[in-house]
Structures are given as structure tokens and as C-alpha cells.
């Protein structure tokens, strides 16, 4: 998720949106960070609003599927795994891949 933040809104803007210090967000989203459920979903909600992208977070995809789409960019990202690794929120590599995709996906005039 850290890659998505860096590729889109940045930590300072996210900190303002969720009313948390940027340094705390860095720690929460570090490789061994452990945000509370409330903080996690506050971050997801803020990212959805700021990026106008609907993020899919599902508990039943433990070690499995994750996906999201941005219709304005005609961009969809999905990762399907059935390896038994991941988190109760799905495999967070979906967010990492999505962050990279957003970096390189062209923005439409509507989004500028």
C-alpha cells in the first residue's frame, strides 16, 4: 500500500486526509507495520477519494484474489493467487502492482 500512496497522493496529503501524522502512516505501512483495522480502512477510504479508484479489500481472499479498476483511465488490475500466503485483507501485492500501474497509466483530461 506504501507504493500506492507514493505513486498517487503522497504521505503528507494522506496524513491530512486521515488526520494522522505522516510519520505514523509511514510506520503503519512499512513492511512490518501493523495498522489497526480502523486506520487501515481510513487509509483505504482516503485513497479511494483522492485517486477516484475503488479499491477492493476482501477477507475471503486470504492468500487469493485481489482487484480494482479505474474506469476513467480504462485501467484494471487483478492478482489471482491460491498459495495460502497473504493477509486477512487479501494479498497486498495487488496494491503494490496497482501502485506501479498507476505510475505509468496515462491520465485522462478529466483527471488532470
Task: Please describe the topology of this protein.
Blueprint: H1 2-7, H2 11-18, H3 22-28, H4 37-51, E1 54-55, E2 66-70, E3 75-79, H5 93-104
Antiparallel strand pairs: 1-2, 2-3
Helix pairs in contact: 2-3
Protein described:
With 112 residues, this protein is α+β, with helices and mostly antiparallel strands. The chain has one domain (2-106). 43% of the residues lie in helices and 11% in strands. The protein has 5 helices and 3 strands, in the order ααααβββα. The chain has helices spanning 2-7, 11-18, 22-28, 37-51, 93-104, and strands at residues 54-55, 66-70, 75-79. It has a 3-stranded antiparallel sheet with strand order 1-2-3. A hairpin with a 4-residue loop joins strand 2 (66-70) and strand 3 (75-79). Helix 2 (11-18) packs across helix 3 (22-28). The protein is globular and about 35 Å long.
